[in-house]
Specification:
Blueprint (H helix, E strand, L loop, with lengths): L2 H17 L8 E2 L1 H8 L3 H13 L3 E4 L3 E4 L5 H10 L1 H15 L6 E3 H8 L3 H13 L3 E3 L4 E4 L6 H18 L9 H14 L9 H17 L4 H20 L4 H19 L3 H18 L17
Protein name: GntR family transcriptional regulator
GO molecular function, one term: DNA-binding transcription factor activity
Keywords: DNA-binding, Transcription, Transcription regulation
Length: 304
């Protein structure tokens, strides 16, 4: 593969990750970071960054470097969403098989390549994304361990009941300390979500921003056990959240309530914010009831 071909391929992969929400708007994109992410040298990465700047996916600032554009051009979203459909289907097929117990806990790369008819490079992309999203990890040699996730409607509901128990309580911890910089940043993110075009936004991006809001709030408790517990259950529910219907009403309700929690916290009304958090999570549990259809073939998801 020539240097220019590799740079073009890298630019597509990076753009697809950005459109999918793996990198947030405003994120600093460093050449070494991207080289490490995709296992290549810095030279084709620099060419890929220049290419994405021309498409409006990245912005370049002298002496500062490249940053993900706060608002992605519509034509770029369409282009890279369509190009990534095959990769998305392969990722979701693997996820679907794990969710429906069609795969063992320990798998080998050779077995996965044969099962899904993937090249080594394509499989590496799929597994890298699964690892980033917290439900796969490499074992010794060429093996991978698929980690526990919520696989049923009952498990999904149990996770939300657990969150209802811990998140409001964390806000009442003696060590709870407001981080106003974090609140300002989360307010910016949630206000931006109120303006998005749901049809042009990857569900993964919306799910990720929602999870990050709750993790940033619970970090203010100063209690590492609350934080680690929420991060773990967020990883476990992520795949089933992707199944839940993402529409404008749901996104606006979620972001509006997040903004109300931020407003209460900024006013110092911690007890009221804790109570509102409980109501918010209970409402989200109802709004995000798992969809009945699977990603791959329309088979009904079993509920217990």
């Amino acid at each position: 593969m020539s240097a220019s071909d590799l740079a073009n391929r890298l630019s597509r992969r990076l753009a697809q990750d950005i459109v999918a929400g793996a990198l947030e708007g405003g994120s600093h994109v460093r050449a070494q970071q991207i080289a490490d992410r995709y296992g290549v040298s810095r030279t084709p990465v620099r060419d890929a960054l220049i290419c994405l700047e021309k498409k409006g996916v990245l912005q370049h600032y002298p002496n500062r470097g490249y940053f993900v554009a706060e608002v992605l051009p519509r034509d770029a979203i369409t282009e890279f969403t369509e190009e990534g459909e095959g990769r998305k289907d392969e990722y979701y097929q693997l996820a679907e098989d794990w969710m429906t117990d069609a795969l063992p806990e320990i798998v080998t790369e050779q077995m996965l390549r044969e099962r899904y008819e993937l090249t080594r490079a394509k499989l590496n992309e799929v597994l890298a994304r699964a690892a980033r999203e917290g439900w796969a990890e490499r074992t010794e040699g060429y093996g991978w361990r698929l980690l526990p996730v919520a696989k049923t409607g009952a498990a999904f509901d149990e996770i939300y009941r657990f969150r209802i128990a811990i998140e409001p309580a964390a806000m009442l911890e003696p060590g709870f300390t407001l981080n106003r910089d974090v609140l300002e940043e989360q307010q910016r993110i949630q206000e931006a979500l109120l303006q998005i075009d749901v049809s042009q936004t990857a569900p993964e991006s919306i799910v990720t921003k929602g999870a990050e809001f709750h993790e940033e709030i619970i970090k203010m408790s100063g209690n590492v056990f609350f934080v680690s517990a929420l991060e773990r259950v967020n990883r476990m529910r992520r795949l089933m959240e992707y199944r839940a219907k993402v529409d404008l009403v749901r996104v606006q309700a979620q972001s509006s309530e997040h903004l109300q929690i931020i407003d209460l916290l900024k006013r110092g009304e911690i007890v009221e914010a804790s109570y509102f958090m409980r109501r918010h999570l209970a409402g989200a549990q109802t709004r995000k009831s798992p969809a009945a259809w699977s990603w791959s073939d329309g088979a009904r998801l079993k509920r217990d």
